[in-house]
Amino acid sequence: MKTDYFIVGAGFAGSVLAERIASQLNKKVLIAEKRNHIAGNAYDEYDEHGILVHRYGPHIFHTNSKEVFEYLSQFTEWIPYEHKVLAKLGNELYPIPINRITINKLYSLNLKTDEEVKEFYERVREKRFPITNSEDIIVNQVGYDLFNKFFRYYTKKQWNLEPKGLSASVCGRIPVRTNDDSRYFTDKYQFMPKDGYTKMFERMLNHKNIEVILNTDYKNILDSVKFDKMIYTGPIDYFFDFKFGKLPYRSIRFEFENISKKQFQETAQINYVDDSVKYTRVIEHKLLSQQNSDSTTISFEYPQKEGEQFYPIPTEENRSQYLLYKKEAEKLSDVFFCGRLAEYQYYNMDQVVANTLKLVGNLRNE
Known about the structure:
alpha/beta, 5-stranded parallel sheet, 33% helix
């Protein structure tokens, strides 16, 4: 088998690279994907009840990048969708990220302006310096009580670590608001692909220069493929045969259930922030795709250690271990490491696409 580029993985990084290399550089691409489907963790499909479900948890497209939006728009039409998340604390639901509505409801206050909410945060926050972890970053903004109620136990369930054991980047990704904007994201472009992510990937990979092999570990065909360059989007530790040990990840077990009612919950996502509930969140899938049906499918998410590698665990120790692999990767001139698993870094979808488009630019100049 002869190809110009051998790409490992058919998720966002691998598929966008394949499409750009095939269409813009007019090179032949072979993709080896270990799963039985394309689209990586963005994979969605219709269940037996006709509901479009995200098999690996909700993927909400949002970006401020016109370039990323216009690039993906070649392969899909969009439906407008603004994601809203509620946190279930006790028997009550509160908007997340924390905003003025959250504060007023939780503390029975009547704060009316951004300034009043800022003053409230200023009164309750604990000044932490330097900020070295996820507890510091939240307590420094909103104080210990809000941290304890909304962040501590959810984070512990998700990562099996106290927030003070995690990089500040984990909880730092969640904004704290002074207004009553209850949208989870505030990006300029907020949409869902009209026919789902899998269809978008199918169109992306539908090119005469691209061949995709599913159910295939790339190592099993490495000897029979002749290629000029490899792009690797899988786990970097696996590429190097775990020579510096296994990099740790968090995984999730999904439990899907169909319910004979029009709608199950107020929003597509409800986070369970109490430690008494073992799952982290419940997703109502048809609210993402805005389908009209008589039944609804929900999924419960149970974080766990073993399973698909979803989330690199951002601790100083793990970062040091990854850097050993990165140093090895830098010695290879004909292999490019790209994406969340290959870079041991949590990325949003639009970040992966942006990074990938940048890499294509570099390949063009080679």
